[in-house]
Design a protein that fits this description.
Helix 1 runs antiparallel to helix 2, helix 2 packs antiparallel against helix 3 and helix 3 runs antiparallel to helix 4. By secondary structure, this protein is mainly α. The chain is about 85% helix and about 0% strand. The chain has 4 helices and no strands. The chain starts with a helix and ends with a helix.
């Protein structure tokens, strides 16, 4: 039977899987970009900027994944509406915005990055809304804790 505990376990597993994949990308980015671009001579000038973009995006991605892992572990232990979780959600959203800014800048030399920038910014916005909901829930929880 599917339940809350299994869902959290799956989310933690996926977060760890993506951390592992991020490590693979860090080790193989030049080869991956070379494979992606293929042997098209017209794409040779953007090889190094694309690799640089991938490496730059790995920084907010790593921070995001570690923050998400911490958030999920805290939720698993029953700590849901807390200041620390709000801080983690804020950090995750800023990581999305940072990746969006990196890819927006990179969109000047490789147009598909503009789509990635839009997606990253959209996810950052959604996370800001969720963070605001958590802040309101924490205020309500604290108010209820003081009510006799």
């Amino acid at each position: 039977m599917w339940n809350h505990s299994r869902s959290l376990t799956l989310s933690l597993f996926c977060t760890r899987l993506f951390l592992g994949l991020l490590g693979v990308v860090l080790c193989t980015a030049p080869f991956l970009v070379n494979w992606y671009l293929g042997m098209r001579p017209a794409m040779r000038p953007v090889h190094i900027p694309i690799v640089a973009t991938v490496y730059l995006c790995c920084i907010p991605a790593a921070i995001l994944l570690f923050s998400l892992h911490r958030l999920l572990r805290r939720i698993r232990s029953g700590k849901v509406f807390t200041e620390e979780n709000i801080r983690l959600l804020r950090m995750i959203s800023w990581c999305c915005f940072a990746a969006g800014m990196i890819t927006l800048t990179s969109g000047f030399f490789y147009l598909p990055f503009l789509l990635v920038a839009i997606a990253c910014s959209f996810f950052g916005l959604i996370l800001r809304v969720i963070k605001n909901v958590f802040e309101q829930a924490l205020e309500i929880k604290q108010e209820n804790d003081f009510t006799i």
